[in-house]
Amino acid sequence: MEVDSRSKKSICAEDLRRRVLTQALEPGVYLDETELAESYGISRPPLREVLRQLAGEGYVVLHENRGAQVAPMTHKTLRNFFVAAPMIYAATTRLAAEHATPAQIARLKECQWAFRQAIKNGDAAERALGNERFHSIIGEMADNEYLMPSLKRLLIDHTRIGMTFYNPRRLELAEQRDLAADQHDQFIALIEAGDADGAAEIAVAHWELSRAQIESFVTPVSITIPLGRAPGAQETRGAS
Amino acid sequence: MEVDSRSKKSICAEDLRRRVLTQALEPGVYLDETELAESYGISRPPLREVLRQLAGEGYVVLHENRGAQVAPMTHKTLRNFFVAAPMIYAATTRLAAEHATPAQIARLKECQWAFRQAIKNGDAAERALGNERFHSIIGEMADNEYLMPSLKRLLIDHTRIGMTFYNPRRLELAEQRDLAADQHDQFIALIEAGDADGAAEIAVAHWELSRAQIESFVTPVSITIPLGRAPGAQETRGAS
DNA sequence: CAAAACTTTATTGTAGACAACATGTATTTT
DNA sequence: AAAATACATGTTGTCTACAATAAAGTTTTG
């Protein structure tokens, strides 16, 4: 029955990842070790191990004698994101089409089903997490341990940006979400067909859609971007 | 005077990185926490934190209840390496030419000087580490937090491969090392000139040289590759 | 004699208590 | 009154001791 026999530590790590991705923990916020350890029912040493791991994965930043901070997003961050994303997304998707196994394709389809459910239900967090999971699976399909770290980092911030700009009331955004979901179906078809060139193309198209959406928010505002505090701006204490 | 006021933990982390890169700790070897903690003069909990961090950086792999293993190198690893390396190297070098600061260029020149010294002295480990440092600095110049994780992972295995195949007696390899050092000078010149296209080109050329060298070792042998044990093959205990 | 189960040993995982560091506040001094 | 210093508080960093898990060796049994 697939009992959840995972350790408290891995549950803790996964939950913290989820909270960072959904912005339940906002960029730049400092984390309290004692508080977190208690809430996950473990002591501080193992919690600190988890935080180190998450730091390695790019979810948090560690400051000596000043604890862990949810990875901040700055203006420079967004610029770099725009440079790296199309390259890594295209490359990994191409490789996914070349290497995907039937089992992985089945998982991708399941994930896509859940993604569409989340859109239908208007659940912002579930939609964002579902999207992250979808592209993570494609990353696993690519099966390249050298590209995966960059892909995962891109997905962290892509997901957080998606959460920031989510707005269920604006109609054109709802349409874009449906379009994105349709593109996901094309990802699946092309990967299943082993069409590397086609997969790379849809990856770029998918990115262009997302980029246009992000730019429609960033460009008009131009100066103040709602992407959380820079590191050391003000140190917002307290997680919840 | 730049006193070494870094914590024992960061010294420990750096030394472990060095030992992994130089193959003083061979791929696939399991690490003993008690032994390592004692040798670095710290207790096990902080050492475990360091190991978690190194796992996040790709130096080691953690197995639940079975400790930390120096990241193994398999045949698949090498294939993936050949796919990802040219892409990431070219991209980061191009960005380096666009973004490098004078201070960074100065550091790069210092590093290159040390690199040439190591070649002259026939010091394999110093040469390998110097090369790693050189390309790491270029990565810092690129200043893109999304590409850096992949670059660093590539450099880990590139360095280890370089150590594996190092042979001071074969003359054509010595020539190739000199050629590589000359290319490093071209890196510096092109980055300093802000020539992005030229930098990307030399990055590819540099990669091609390295690739040819690696292939000259791998192809003739074809079956058994001296790249360390696969995970779970035999579990070589003991670090030193 | 071979195989399986039990016991022993070594290593990893965790908890609680203590030390060190940083920050904010109050007091003192100019 | 303003600034600097000393103090108090809270949070991070570390250590020692203990618990749990896995491997190895030994014994027992078919």
Number of helices of chain A: 9
Oligomer: homodimer
**Main sheet makeup of chain A:** 2 strands, antiparallel
| Principal-axes shape call of chain A | globular
User: Approximately what portion of the residues of chain A adopt beta-strand conformation?
Assistant: under 5%
Which fold name is given in CATH as the topology of the largest domain in chain A?
A: Four Helix Bundle (Hemerythrin (Met), subunit A)
CATH homology group of the largest domain in chain A: GntR ligand-binding domain-like
Query: Greatest chain-chain interface?
Result: A-B, 33 and 33 residues
Runs of chain A in which pLDDT lies below 50 for 5 or more consecutive residues are: 221-240
Which range best describes the helical content of chain A: under 10%, 10-25%, 25-40%, 40-55%, 55-70% or over 70%?
55-70%
Element-level helix/strand string of chain A: HHHEEHHHHHH
Number of strands of chain A: 2
Round the mean pLDDT of chain A to the nearest integer and report it. 89
The structural domain count of chain A equals 2
Strand order of the largest sheet of chain A: 1-2
Q: Which value, in Å, is the CA radius of gyration of chain A?
A: 18 Å
Structural class determined from secondary elements of chain A: mainly alpha
Keywords (chains A, B): DNA-binding, Transcription, Transcription regulation
InterPro entries (chains A, B): GntR_C (IPR011711), TF_FadR/GntR_C (IPR008920), Tscrpt_reg_HTH_GntR (IPR000524), WH-like_DNA-bd_sf (IPR036388), WH_DNA-bd_sf (IPR036390)
Pfam families (chains A, B): FCD (PF07729), GntR (PF00392)
Protein name (chains A, B): GntR family transcriptional regulator
